[in-house]
Design a protein that fits this description.
By secondary structure, the protein is an alpha/beta fold. 30% of the residues lie in helices and 30% in strands. It folds into three domains: 3-51 and 98-158 and 263-304, FAD/NAD(P)-binding domain (3-Layer(bba) Sandwich); 164-258, D-Amino Acid Oxidase, subunit A, domain 2 (D-Amino Acid Oxidase, Chain A, domain 2); 316-383, no CATH class. The chain has helices at residues 3-6, 19-30, 98-110, 154-157, 226-240, 291-304, 316-331, 336-345, 349-356, 362-371, 374-383; strands at residues 9-15, 39-42, 53-59, 68-72, 74-78, 83-87, 91-97, 115-118, 122-127, 132-136, 140-148, 164-176, 185-190, 200-206, 211-220, 246-259, 271-273. Strands 1, 2, 8, 9, 10, 11 and 17 form a seven-stranded mixed β-sheet that branches. A hairpin with a 4-residue loop joins strand 14 (200-206) and strand 15. The chain binds flavin-adenine dinucleotide.
């Protein structure tokens, strides 16, 4: 009988060992305060595959540098007709494969006597007084606190009441026969290959002279047939990169919800949604991987001080900014390229990153807002006038 089977009561349970659950667990395992807590992880998958290619920016060196495929200190943004070199300064853009991240988390977890991992699917979490009862397909477990990566069912059911954009994409890790890539420089967005004038771009993450991830991405309300991504990828590889002989080593497809859905309303004092399910995905960019570390640190600091776990996790002004951008993308999607060109072309990258990281000053905000095309955002403000404080 293992330690889990003898005692089915835990201080903290994390449902889902994806990006958010992993960052939360790593933060707990790094802090001796949590060594005395019984921590359970319930994850339905073995988590061994390269199922996500995570990219993010951060200042200088970081905790995951040793598992990154590449780290860039130079990059470009391309509008339809102009190249904008990016000044990264102290920032670095980084890419890693999820399987390496999962292995890192699992190795650390296995060295901790107070952390237990069960590969089971959670069906229900119910409040039973001072504890929560978690039902999996095999057992019932009690826990004082639950962090939950499952997306609330209402997200699908209430889609009509919120502004929803899909970030949907397909990417290939290609190996070109000829050495064509400059592995020192990445492309964050390139609008030279487009689909029906919509907010659709390609990004390029070169690993070495032969290998790069090429990903075609849409920020739209609609999805597209698989063949559309393939056509756009092939067009970009042949017409922009001038590559005619290559093999695809890995393929990735994904859909990230960018939404004004109020995920935070689904939390109680002891049942907290995390990650995508907690509204951690930045609604206007689809990025989450790095910001999840800040959210995890904030939640654990709150826990240690017996404050409400979600306190100070979100700032109203960024929800408002995100709502306006999502509204423009929903109602006037063809304006997306001009908005992103203004974001990258008329602002130092550090200011844009602070803005997206939700760490901008008031002066940053004013300068950023002044760089934007005004009319589309004023129209969005009018359309969203009754929802501004939601
Ligand atoms: C293909 C793809 C690429 C992305 N790339 C980037 C990127 O480059 N940069 C960036 O910042 N963001 C990126 N994102 C957005 C975001 O960072 C990821 O979606 C991230 O994985 C979200 O983390 P999460 O923990 O919320 O969800 P996940 O990582 O999906 O983890 C949720 C976990 O919960 C488990 N689970 C679900 N239901 C149950 C259940 N009932 N019982 C037990 N376990 C359960 C799942 O198996 C999964 O392991 C990407 C998203 C996708 C889909």
């Amino acid at each position: 009988m293992n330690k889990h089977e003898q005692n089915k009561l835990y201080d903290i349970t994390i449902i889902g060992l994806g990006a958010a659950g992993s960052h939360l667990l790593l933060a707990m395992m790094d802090d001796p305060f949590f060594d005395s807590k019984r921590i359970l992880i319930l994850e339905k998958e073995p988590k061994e595959k390269h199922d996500r290619t995570w990219s993010f920016w951060e200042k200088n060196d970081g905790r995951f540098d040793h598992i990154c495929e590449n780290i860039w200190s130079q990059g470009d943004y391309f509008s339809r007709d102009k190249r904008y070199p990016l000044e990264l300064k102290e920032y670095r853009y980084k890419t890693l494969h999820s399987n390496h991240f999962y292995t890192l988390v699992r190795e650390k977890l296995e060295s901790k006597a107070n952390v237990f991992l069960l590969e089971q699917t959670v069906h229900n979490v119910a409040d039973i007084g001072e504890k929560l009862r978690i039902d999996t397909e095999q057992t019932s477990i009690d826990s004082y606190l639950v962090f939950d990566s499952r997306i609330p069912e209402d997200f699908e059911n209430q889609a009509d009441f919120h502004v929803n954009i899909l970030q949907h994409f397909k990417g290939w890790l290609i190996n070109s026969k000829k050495p064509v890539f400059n592995s020192d420089s990445f492309t964050i967005m390139d609008y030279r290959v487009n689909y029906k004038d919509q907010t659709c771009f390609t990004y390029v993450l070169p690993y070495d002279a032969h290998r790069a991830v090429i990903e075609t991405t849409f920020f739209t309300e609609f999805s597209v047939e698989d063949a559309v991504y393939d056509d756009l990828l092939n067009k970009y590889i042949s017409e922009i990169l001038n590559i005619d002989d290559f093999v695809v080593e890995h393929e990735e497809f994904g859909v990230i919800p960018m939404s004004t859905f109020p995920f935070q309303h689904y939390n109680t004092d002891k049942h907290i949604r995390i990650g995508t399910a907690g509204g951690w995905v930045k609604a206007s960019s689809g990025y989450m991987f790095r910001m999840a570390q800040d959210k995890a640190a904030q939640m654990l600091a709150n826990y240690k001080q017996s404050l409400p776990i979600n306190q100070s996790l979100f700032k109203a002004k960024y929800r408002f900014y995100d709502r306006l951008l999502l509204d423009v993308l929903k109602e006037e999607n063809k304006l997306g390229p001009a908005i992103f060109t203004a974001s990258y072309g008329a602002n130092p990258l550090a200011r844009l990153f602070r803005f997206l990281d939700e760490k901008s000053s008031l002066l940053d905000d004013i300068r950023f807002i002044l760089s934007m095309p005004k009319a589309p955002f004023l129209r969005a403000l009018w359309r969203q006038r009754l929802n501004i404080f939601k």
